[in-house]
Amino acid sequence: MPRPSPHPSRHAAIVPPYLLARIAASDDPRFDVAADAARRSLVRDWSMLEWRITGEPPTFVIHDHAARDERPAAAPGTGPRPDRRISDAENDDVLPGRLVRREGQPDTGDRAVDEAYDGLGDTFEMFARVFARDSIDDAGMPLEATVHFGDHYDNAFWDGERMVFGDGDGEIFRSFTSSLSVVGHELAHGVTERTARLRYQGQSGALNEHVSDVFGALVEQYSMGQDAESATWLIGEGVFTDAVEGRAIRSMIEPGTAYDDDVLGRDPQPAHFDRYIDTDEDNGGVHLNSGIPNRAFALAAVELGGFAWEHAGRVWYDVLTSGRLRPTSDFRAFASEIVRAANDRYGATSREARAIAAGWAEVGLGVPPAP
Ligand SMILES: [Zn+2]
């Protein structure tokens, strides 16, 4: 009898299996390395998926709990401060790898190490300053990441304890630390795991993905001081090489338009609940159907203008931490909790509540007014 994993979003990876399968099937000689890397990445992702189902970690994962216990005492009166630990897998398949940079240590000169360190810092800072959240668990949990995982590994994932980043194959994917929205997305999986615990399957799984995209985008916008109108609303901008006809892995505001490429095909994300995709693959289409709530969020944020983390982001965070979502909450339950939270925070006739309700209506998930 397999034990259920204590980590509902364990191995929530940024690149969905259907995209890797397209690359793996390519016989274009320009992408020999990429096709081989995608095949091996799929196999790697499968063993991680089994871990999530059975609770048994694959042999290459050795969690070093000893290293986690020595934490520097927090200085009094300084507010939350990050405690980052970046390890280097040195292109091997072993986790966590060799610890190469700890909090307060200078740049190493290794781009992936330093990008992960900076990206975790930006993510920590947004959660701390905007939402007064002290790390993933709101209790100062160290932020751990492993970079250079695997050989040309084409993915990044949250394994329940740390963020893991591959270097990419170099032909289609660059290093996954190069996009701040990817770093923020992975860390947000940890936040969801410790708050709403949305089950990583079907609609609740697509909501889990959606929440990670929301906070991934917000971290990027926050770090750039960017308002909702000038934001790209892209997730994973910069992880594709120039050989790819595409801007990013996903577009929150225009799902289905992030790429259209000979090898990758066309971005399959639906933008409306009428086109919800029923599938057994990808945990029931978690990376596909997340486009629907993503668009609702982005539309509301753009309609409100200004900084998205100050209004729409605030309401989404309220719901994530409200205790009112169930692990199996579906799109309609989530939308109605969001509308309720907007009404509670701003008033039912406020611009905020109206813009947020309109965003859901636009994607086919309108919430009837409360009696
Ligand atoms: Zn994810």
Mean pLDDT: 90
| Distance linking N and C termini | 46 Å
What is the number of domains?
Answer: 2
In spatial order, strands of the major sheet run: 1-5-6-4-2-3
The strand count comes to: 10
* CATH architecture title of the largest domain: Roll
CATH class of the largest domain: Alpha Beta
Which oligomeric form is depicted? single chain
Q: What order do the helices and strands follow? A: EHHHEEHEEEHHEEEEHHHHH
The percent of residues in helical segments reads 40-55%
Say which molecules are bound, naming each kind only once.
Answer: zinc ion
User: Which geometry do the CA atoms define?
Assistant: globular
Strand content: 5-15%
Structural classification = alpha+beta
CATH fold naming of the largest domain? Elastase, domain 1
**Rg over CA atoms:** 20 Å
In the predicted model, the low-confidence regions spanning at least 5 consecutive residues are: 1-8, 65-74
Biggest sheet: strands, sense, closure? 6 strands, mixed
Walkthrough of the structure:
Residues 62-72, 100-111 have a biased composition (Basic and acidic residues). Its cofactor is Zn(2+). It comes from Agromyces bauzanensis. The chain is of the alpha+beta class and 371 residues long. It folds into two domains: 12-64 and 79-193, Elastase, domain 1, CATH 3.10.170; 229-362, Neutral Protease Domain 2 (Neutral Protease, domain 2, Orthogonal Bundle). Helix content is 41%, strand content 8%. It has eleven helices and ten strands. The protein has helices at residues 17-24, 32-54, 65-69, 111-131, 180-193, 202-224, 282-289, 291-304, 312-320, 331-346, 351-362; strands at residues 12-13, 84-88, 98-102, 143-147, 156-158, 163-165, 234-235, 250-251, 260-261, 265-266. It has a six-stranded mixed sheet with strand order 1-5-6-4-2-3, with helices on one face. A two-stranded antiparallel sheet has the order 7-8. A two-stranded antiparallel sheet has the order 9-10. The relative contact order is 0.12. The model is unreliable at 1-8 and 65-74 (pLDDT under 50).
